[in-house]
Amino acid sequence: MSVRVARAVRAWGWDASCCRGASNFRVPPPGAVDVAELLRDATVTEEGPRAAAARRLPSQSSVLLFPGQGSQVVGMGRGLLRYPRVRELYAAARRVLGYDLLELSLHGPREALDRTAHCQPAVFVASLAAIEKLHHLQPAVIENCVAAAGFSVGEFAALVFAGAMEFSEGSAVSPAELL
């Protein structure tokens, strides 16, 4: 090692064990507290019972994934109209959007439904309508939901489902805001 390097090492506080700023004490001073031991004890006593109670079996958990743009098809939502609140969702969408989304979803034309400005609200409302059906057929899936996600407009459906966004906010999102 050159003299210049040796001086730099000393100037930076490296000792013989190559640990910068290491203590010269080989053993802890009298009365020192072992911090690692305290942290281990605190973790075991505080988190032990809570962690066990919060853990769910995978068979008792569900995750909902919401579709995005491209999953639209003329006729979507037809089988969901018999469930409560589905017609209310479409009526609310009509008020927010200013056109009859239910009519467009059920009867097309396909070219109009495929336009981004129409397909995103259509997929959004149909996704939430499907949640209504799921709520009636398998309520435990909704109750045991631990996560909800989606891509593009599906993300907004997941946020509305989770209660992080109002329906009117999600249905009024413009395509430019999704980019």
UniProtKB/TrEMBL annotation:
GO BP annotations, alphabetical order: monocarboxylic acid metabolic process
Highest taxon listed in the record's lineage: Eukaryota
InterPro entries cross-referenced by the UniProt entry: Ac_transferase_dom_sf (IPR001227), Acyl_transferase_dom (IPR014043), Acyl_Trfase/lysoPLipase (IPR016035), Mitochondrial_malonyltrans (IPR052760)
Ranges of residues in domain Malonyl-CoA:ACP transacylase (MAT): 65-170
GO MF annotations in UniProt: transferase activity
PANTHER family: MALONYL-COA ACP TRANSACYLASE, ACP-BINDING, MALONYL-COA:ACP TRANSACYLASE (MAT) DOMAIN-CONTAINING PROTEIN
Protein name (database record): Malonyl-CoA-acyl carrier protein transacylase
Organism: Rhinolophus ferrumequinum (Greater horseshoe bat)
